[in-house]
């Protein structure tokens, strides 16, 4: 957003510089014409010539000021572009890290899913073995009782 503002300001300043350069050229050509008339001795033209010189000086000062503003704006724009480029590189690196982390997360989720299935299978086997153990223990106790009866 700031870059767009600076670019717009840069364009305005460039237009201003172009306008001031045209004004300067017009003033120079206007000054050249009165000098030719001034040679003939016309006092009115001399005053116009002085006014033209003042306009030239003002236009030159305005042109220099506009050029300085343009240079400052371009410098600020280049700094912002460098900052923008650095931030974009950081963003790209962060995006790559995020992609790697997402991939790793999906791998871990897959492993967790497999381990949950394995745990469920082992729980089922454990329950089956407990049931068999109780059954065999009861049969053993029953046999001990029968042996005592026979003995």
TrEMBL record:
<feature type="compositionally biased region" description="Basic and acidic residues">
    <location>
        <begin position="18"/>
        <end position="28"/>
    </location>
</feature>
<feature type="region of interest" description="Disordered">
    <location>
        <begin position="1"/>
        <end position="62"/>
    </location>
</feature>
<protein>
    <submittedName>
        <fullName>Uncharacterized protein</fullName>
    </submittedName>
</protein>
<feature type="compositionally biased region" description="Basic and acidic residues">
    <location>
        <begin position="37"/>
        <end position="62"/>
    </location>
</feature>
């Amino acid at each position: 957003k700031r870059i767009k503002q600076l670019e717009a300001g840069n364009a305005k300043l460039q237009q201003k510089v172009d306008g001031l350069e045209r004004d300067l050229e017009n003033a120079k050509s206007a000054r050249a014409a009165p000098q030719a008339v001034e040679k003939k001795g016309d006092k009115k033209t001399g005053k116009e010539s002085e006014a033209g010189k003042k306009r030239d000086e003002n236009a030159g000062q305005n042109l220099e000021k506009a050029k300085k503003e343009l240079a400052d704006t371009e410098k600020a724009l280049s700094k912002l572009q460098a900052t923008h480029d650095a931030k974009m590189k950081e963003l790209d690196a962060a995006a790559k890290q995020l992609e790697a982390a997402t991939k790793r997360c999906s791998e871990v989720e897959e492993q967790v899913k497999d381990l949950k299935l394995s745990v469920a299978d082992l729980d089922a086997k454990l329950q089956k073995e407990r049931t068999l153990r109780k059954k065999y223990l009861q049969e053993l106790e029953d046999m001990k009782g029968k042996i005592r009866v026979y003995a």
